[in-house]
């Protein structure tokens, strides 16, 4: 047995150890303390540098971070920190000390941070405002101005998303500004990080004047002919590391611009140097071919934002539709350059304000949320322990592995962990217990047939396998759709959900089974008590199908009508925008108290966070609420907290953080999720099952949305993802029942279709109740303890669990029954044979 399971044991240990290593350090470490410990040579000298760096201040008299202080000292004294103090770190073949210092300090800063960073709601981050240069707008009409700002907003969103910052906020402010909030970004350590976002990325291809092939001396005044200008670029001598400045005389008018570039990709050449590979569109390909054909033997200057990047020789016509930008790029510089070339701005932007912002959730809210997550997880574990005793302990171990691996994979992707994300993990975890419940329920059936514990284990896993893989694959498909079509929270939920599918399969099918085999097969445990609920039931579900179906769809239509009646009122600030007010104060008030006072005054949507302008100790309060509610909200706060002496410093209208494109993508995500469900279920089962699955899923989505609005809640960004999560839960539950119907059709060839469906529903009823119960416990716990988005997500899942269970019993199966006109022969004409997987074989019972 040990030899047979060696690969599973090895795989499990490797993955768990990798996950543990991936999550270390769990918390951020002080940079100065960390780098001091990492220095391996000349420690006394380095400690003196650290002390000096910590005492440095900017021109305004504000202290600099140790990171920036060290970078400045090293540049001023031409120090090579890597060579002198960190020789054990490999920085490649970079010879220039300034570049080596930058690579070194960036690496050490990254290593000092927690592998899994927290979001704006838990930790805060940086916010800044970009403003369109008035000269760029000139006398343009308002409509064109708005269109250009909208285009710039899209470009900035694309650039932010490509930086790998999870769950950023990007929205319009007023009629010429864009606000960006980035969780976990620290401008004190990396002040140039924001520059990439405002670059216009103007790419020009210009001809170099013949005879000026890169001189080390600048041309004398008066020697530059009309129509030309002098541009320079830096070139590193890779032998010595010395940086040389080369001067070129270049045409002012470009031969072509970067408008013909289709995409830009950062690559490494054969010498290990980073370069930008350009692919042209059809028009750009022809234009570039014409330019290079007419200028063979000359140099083509590649100019980005008015700066010369490189000036390669044109040795022959280039007709392949691609080109390279070479230069002394670091990996980060190459990636950032490719990013801005892929998303060029047509209007220049300037940074008007930069702020460090505090967590948007109050301390007590964060504490209560953590408590609710702990309680809900313990309740889930307790639930499975009561029903499955020893099996419950093993399932709990699998759940622990599931969480660790999920967080580790998120960390490796650079994901930011926010409160809704944590809620998503907890809820996914509650639903993931379903795989274990399916296995245990199947084992229970085998034990009742008189089989041994070892035989029941193998049969239980084998018979549960097709339901596990089908339900998880359909849910995975929904997750992939979220990733492909969604952005922001929708995409984040999709990533979390997809990761959770793989980790759940690993935990249930590999880890849990491995532990059980090591305990059961050698006889370490000879009995596995399991508590039974709703066993041997004989409910006639189809008897009540028609009235239940009619009543539920009447409720659905009423819900849809109510949503239509409410119109745009169902949307929160994320979707429609609102007013943001900046307040000065004399006494700080906790964010939680501010939110309670706002809610009591009727401002349920109000959000608050404190911000501090970078380079200043002056802190202000930002309050965001619905349109035309800014001034009344300030009045309410002044009345509720007179000691704070709130004074409004200004009010601005903000645009939605969930734009029209994201809303459209959310709609298409739901549409394609339904199409995927129909296609997959029809392929794996047959079309009747697929119709039943789609009708029940659509029923669950519509009734969940309707009841959510009916209870006075509003849609925010996270709710789109939560609705899609309901689709995953609904189809998961339905497929388990369908899988049992398919099996019963083979095992009972003489049974009528009506009796067979009722039998399948009764056989899976115990699993349905236990799975729903675990998820219900989690949802109720989160609703009772948490507030805000987490509470909304939990409320959505609460409705989804109830409607999902109902639809599996009274929507999906009856639709399948009616589609086939109650005749099993009609099913058998279309029914596919259950596929046999090579890694599971086939049981006698299923043949």
Report strand %: 5-15%
Helix content: 55-70%
* Total DSSP E strands: 19
What is the strand arrangement across the widest sheet? 3-4-2-14-17-18-16-19
Q: Measure the end-to-end span.
A: 26 Å
Q: Give the low-confidence spans.
A: 833-847
Assembly type of the chains comes to single chain
What is the count of structural domains?
5
* Discrete helix count: 27
Largest sheet: 8 strands, antiparallel
| Global mean pLDDT | 78
What does this 3D model show about the protein?
The protein is an alpha+beta fold. The chain has five domains: 84 residues, no CATH class; 82 residues, Alpha-Beta Plaits (2-Layer Sandwich), CATH 3.30.70.3400; 142 residues, Gyrase A, domain 2, CATH 3.30.1360; 389 residues, no CATH class; 77 residues, Alpha-Beta Plaits (2-Layer Sandwich). Helices cover 55% and strands 14% of the residues. The chain has 27 helices and 19 strands. Strand 9 and strand 10 form a beta hairpin. Helix 17 crosses helix 26. The two termini are 26 Å apart. The C terminus is likely disordered.
């Amino acid at each position: 047995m040990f030899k047979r399971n060696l690969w599973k044991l090895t795989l499990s240990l490797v993955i768990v150890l990798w996950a543990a290593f991936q999550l270390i350090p769990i918390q951020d470490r002080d940079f100065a303390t960390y780098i001091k410990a990492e220095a391996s040579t000349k420690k006394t000298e380095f400690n003196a540098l650290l002390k000096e760096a910590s005492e440095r201040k900017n021109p305004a008299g504000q202290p600099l971070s140790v990171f920036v202080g060290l970078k400045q000292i090293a540049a001023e004294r031409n120090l090579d920190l890597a060579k002198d103090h960190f020789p054990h770190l490999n920085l490649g073949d970079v010879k220039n000390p300034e570049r080596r210092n930058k690579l070194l300090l960036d690496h050490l800063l990254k290593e000092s941070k927690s592998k899994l960073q927290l979001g704006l709601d838990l930790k805060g981050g940086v916010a800044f405002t970009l403003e369109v240069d008035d000269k760029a707008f000139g006398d343009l009409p308002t409509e064109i101005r708005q269109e250009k700002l909208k285009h710039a907003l899209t470009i900035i969103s694309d650039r932010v998303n490509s930086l790998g910052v999870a769950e950023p906020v990007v929205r319009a402010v007023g009629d010429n500004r864009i606000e960006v909030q980035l969780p976990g970004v620290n401008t004190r350590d990396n002040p140039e990080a924001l520059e990439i976002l405002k670059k216009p990325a103007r790419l020009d291809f210009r001809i170099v004047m013949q005879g000026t092939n890169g001189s080390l001396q600048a041309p004398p005044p008066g020697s530059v002919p009309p129509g030309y200008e002098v541009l320079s670029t830096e070139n590193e001598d890779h032998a010595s590391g010395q940086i040389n400045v080369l001067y070129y005389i270049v045409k002012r008018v470009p031969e072509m611009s970067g408008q013909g570039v289709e995409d830009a990709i950062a690559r490494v050449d054969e010498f290990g140097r980073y370069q930008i590979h350009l692919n042209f569109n059809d028009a750009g390909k022809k234009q570039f071919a014409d330019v290079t054909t007419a200028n063979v033997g000359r140099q083509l200057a590649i100019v980005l934002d008015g700066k010369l990047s490189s000036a390669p020789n044109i040795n022959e016509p280039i007709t392949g539709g691609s080109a390279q930008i070479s230069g002394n790029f670091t990996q980060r510089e190459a990636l950032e350059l490719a990013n801005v070339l892929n998303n060029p701005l047509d209007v220049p932007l300037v940074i008007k304000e930069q702020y460090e912002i505090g967590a948007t959730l109050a301390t007590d809210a964060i504490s209560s949320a953590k408590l609710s997550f702990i309680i809900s997880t313990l309740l889930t574990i307790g639930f499975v322990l009561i029903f499955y005793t020893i099996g419950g302990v093993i399932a709990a171990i699998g759940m622990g592995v599931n969480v660790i691996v999920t967080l580790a994979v998120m960390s490796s992707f650079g994901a930011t962990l926010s409160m809704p994300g944590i809620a998503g993990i907890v809820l996914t975890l509650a639903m993931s217990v379903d795989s274990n419940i399916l296995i245990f329920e199947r084992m229970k059936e085998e034990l009742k047939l008189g089989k041994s514990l070892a035989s029941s284990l193998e049969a239980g896993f084998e018979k549960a396998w097709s339901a596990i893989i089908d339900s998880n694959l359909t849910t995975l498909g929904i997750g992939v759709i979220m990733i492909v079509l969604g952005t922001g929270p929708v995409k984040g939920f999709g990533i979390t959900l997809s990761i959770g599918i793989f980790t759940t399969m690993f935990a249930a099918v590999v880890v849990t089974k491995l532990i059980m085999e090591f305990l059961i097969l050698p006889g370490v445990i000879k009995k596995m008590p399991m508590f039974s609920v709703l066993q041997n039931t004989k409910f006639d579900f189809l008897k009540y199908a028609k009235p239940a179906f009619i009543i539920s769809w009447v409720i659905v239509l009423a819900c849809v009508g109510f949503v239509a009646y409410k119109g745009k009122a169902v949307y929160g600030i994320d979707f429609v925008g609102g007013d943001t007010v900046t307040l000065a104060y004399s006494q700080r008030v906790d964010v939680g108290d501010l939110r309670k006072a706002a809610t009591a005054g009727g401002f349920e949507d109000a959000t608050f966070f404190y911000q501090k302008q970078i380079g200043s100790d002056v802190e202000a309060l930002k309050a965001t609420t619905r349109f035309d509610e800014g001034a009344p909200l300030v009045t309410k706060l002044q009345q509720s907290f007179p000691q704070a002496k709130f004074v409004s410093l200004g009010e601005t209208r903000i645009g939605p953080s969930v734009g029209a494109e994201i809303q459209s993508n959310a709609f298409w995500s739901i549409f394609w999720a339904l199409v995927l469900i129909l296609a997959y279920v029809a392929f794996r089962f047959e079309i009747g099952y697929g119709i039943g699955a789609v009708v029940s899923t659509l029923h669950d989505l519509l009734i969940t949305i309707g009841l959510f609005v009916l209870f006075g809640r509003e849609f925010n960004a996270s709710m789109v993802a939560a609705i899609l999560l309901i689709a995953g839960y609904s189809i998961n539950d339905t497929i388990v029942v369908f899988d049992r119907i398919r099996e019963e059709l083979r095992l009972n060839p003489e049974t009528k279709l009506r009796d067979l469906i009722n039998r399948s529903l009764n056989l899976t009823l115990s699993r349905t109740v236990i799975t729903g119960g675990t998820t219900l416990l989690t949802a109720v716990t989160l609703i009772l303890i948490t507030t805000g988005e987490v509470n909304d997500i939990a409320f959505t899942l609460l409705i989804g669990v109830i409607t999902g269970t109902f639809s599996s019993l009274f929507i999906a199966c009856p639709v399948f029954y009616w589609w086939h006109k109650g005749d099993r022969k009609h099913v058998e004409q279309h029914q596919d044979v259950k596929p046999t997987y090579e890694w599971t074989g086939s049981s006698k019972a299923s043949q």
